Amino acid sequence: MRKKKMSLTKKIVWLAVIVIVLFGGYKVAKQVHSTIRENQIQKSDQQRIEEAQEEAAKKRHEFAETIAKPAVQVWNKQHVVLPSVVIAQAIQESNWGQSELYKKAYNIFGVKGTYKGQSIQYYTDEYVSNDTPVGKGVKVVREGDKKKISIPATFRKYPSVYDAVENHSTVTALNFIKQKNVMSYEEQAKMLQKNGYATDPNYAKNLIALIKQYNLSKYDDQISK
Question: Which residues, by range, are in coiled-coil regions (predicted)?
Answer without folding.
Answer: 42-69
